[in-house]
Input
Amino acid sequence: MDFMTDRDVQKECDELRQRMGDMVEEMDVPQHCRTTFSTNHDEQLKAQGNTHYFITSGDKIRFFFEKGVFDDKGDFIVPKQRSLNKVGHALHAYEPLYKKVTHSPKVQGLAKKLGLISPVILQSMFIFKQPGIGGEVTPHQDATFLYTEPLGRVMGLWIALEDATENNGCLWFIPHSHNSGISRRMVRTPKGTYPMTDFTGREQTYDEQKFLVAPVKKGSVVLIDGEVVHRSSKNTSEDSRHVYTFHIMESQDTRWSPENWLQPTEELPFPQLYTK
Output
């Protein structure tokens, strides 16, 4: 759906991208925290589950990188502006511009139209999908990582800050897959054990013919049910595919799993979406 007016598209999308560009210029990530991001089962356990940097990022703003952007010493082999996979997971809490967009009247109005009574914000991310190297995101369901009881209480809002096309890695979905439950979960392992997360179950094998492509224009928002199967291909183009995305949960009569990697903290409880 078209989320912003034509005037707002240029202004708000470009402002979000400009602010992120400034943040990248200012970033100083120690070499031991230079973590790559992946949705591949085994790569997740190796790259994320073993790192304190990832597991404690829910109430912070941290930088996650594409594969192959560092040499053996951990130094950049590409310009740092082209090195990032994403920034997360608390932009909505600590960056005023992102907080403003997340709590905007349009977002709140959309949530109310969907009948959400007490939605809270779980996490937020800026996804880069870098030209030429922006990695594939394999088929997955967000509820694998953001599990609730009952299911069906989590939704992603995926705001395209640039045109998302087949060439630069737009989203693909399996229609009606949100009705089939989930086949795996990422869970925290007992304190003091490694890796720090593990999976129960395995991702299913999906028929590629069932996926439908979903290109969208700059300024569009895609609503992603927590159980719908979706993916994106590698960015093989010369254009980036910048996105601001965040997840919300209907908190009324919902149990957030204490086994999820992402947990509210004293510093940052899950904030209410609706503001007075």
